[in-house]
Amino acid sequence: MTSQSSLTEPGGQPDHSDGNGSGASPSSEAVPPAPSDGQGAKNSEGLQQGLKSRHLSMIAIGGVIGAGLFVGSSAGIAAAGPAILVSYALVGAMVVLVMRMLGEMAAARPTSGSFSAYADQALGRWAGFSIGWLYWFFWVVVLAVEATAGAVILEGWVPAIPQWGWALIVMFVLTATNLVSVGSYGEFEFWFAGIKVAAISVFVIIGLLAVFGILPGSDNPGSGFAHLTDAGGFLPKGPGAILTGVLLVVFSFMGSEIVTLAAGESSDPQRAVSKATNSVIWRIGIFYLGSIFVVLTLLPWNDKSIGEHGSYVAALNSIGIPHAGQIMDVIVLTAVLSCLNSGLYTASRMAFSLSGRGDAPKAFGRVSGQGVPRAAILGSVVFGFVAVFFNYQWPDTVFEFLLNSSGAVALFVWLAICFSQLRLRGKIVRESPEKLVVRMWLFPYLTWATIAMILFVLVYMLFDDDGRPQVLLSLLVAALVVAFSLLRERKRGGGYGPTPDHQVEPGEKVPASS
Fold first, then answer.
1. Which residues, in sequence order, are CB contacts of 514 under 8 Å at separation 6+?
2. Core-most of 123, 147, 447, 475, by most CB within 10 Å?
3. Is residue 71 a contact partner of residue 59, using CB atoms and an 8 Å limit?
4. What are the distances in angstroms from CA 79 to CA 87, 147, 294, 488, 513?
5. Is-cis flag, bond preceding 300, omega within 30?
6. Into how many domains does the chain fold?
7. What is d(CA 425, CA 253) in angstroms, rounded to the nearest whole number?
8. What membrane topology was assigned to this protein in its record (predicted)?
9. Would residue 23 count as lying in a domain?
10. pTM of this prediction?
11. What are phi and psi for residue 465, nearest 5 degrees?
């Protein structure tokens, strides 16, 4: 998939001279070789390769640390007690496996559309169309959620500006950042993610010192591992609470896949994807399991302060860290801005990729002289502004519908990744085995096991009062999108996508049917 400018002329054939579908057609401009720092060059899709290795490393690390970890963990602790660690471990393992599958495909076929493009190639045009637009929809709604969350914090600091004003300011600033260049997005995300990573790392180190009673000046008695069992045992609410905890924490992991979309805008996407995929285990282990473990060993799980102030603030207060609430506000705001920044980037690149396959307006596929898909960015942010308006005008009706109807999209995306990897592994082995530098473990058994885990979570959500509306409304929206894509394919008379004996490669365009 490439930008509109790299479409072959009617009746022409795409050039595959490099074996990866990225060679220029006779009528298109040659893509200059990427310099070592990735600046200035453009990839086969016309996007600037402006993301440096340090940008991608921090995007990969920060992608698994969302605001949900800071503000949502207390609900999981209240629901499952210390057993929430098992919930985080189960979901973390599922995400590691999904990322491994995605990494395998992304390293072999890097593209701005990532899993949507792979669903297109493996399952059919309907699948790529559907999962791409659902994912775009998810992030557009996230823009409104995060803009509002950031506005709440900022209004507390500067009440002279109303909350809706702060939401608009935040959206405008980050939109402008994304419009300038992909390098400016990467730079902002580097510092946003860096603050999150540094904060959690310091929290884990200080917390563990306090847990074992060796932190000078700590107010916490340092009970070691006693709090994991001294308030009703490790499973105070029974084994079933682990599954309830899974439902509460699963969506805080969304965003891990962003690095595979961003990798296409770096000078060495294969290396970037391989590095990100290989490091996902320790990232989840330290940032999720490590930080929650510290909270649960510093305080009993049923301590009232966890529910009143949040798990991290309560833990810092127990140590005697002054101004813990204000410190966490800064960190949460950083996490919110990071999520907003990445959400806008992700939505725009998905819209750009869909346009490249003829599944979105052509304008979304055009890039500026700086290699930025500005129309895709502005189109995405317009819907984000509309969602922000809904959040303030009709929070309990229209916006609640948007939230619920996008709530299970993460699980749909992960399912699409699993099924795509099942189909594409064989194609990669046959066509370009040297590109299989990242391999899914125990294929296909772990792939099928992951599919079973995701389906189990979806079914279990149907029996949960909070999860049921999310699954049902998300399924309704997904069904409508799939139905539209199938009708569209039928109207085009079967000319909607690649034939079984020819799969679209990165850099190759499928001309849109009339």
1. none
2. 147
3. no
4. 11, 28, 18, 45, 52
5. no
6. 1
7. 25
8. Multi-pass membrane protein
9. no
10. 0.82
11. -60, -40
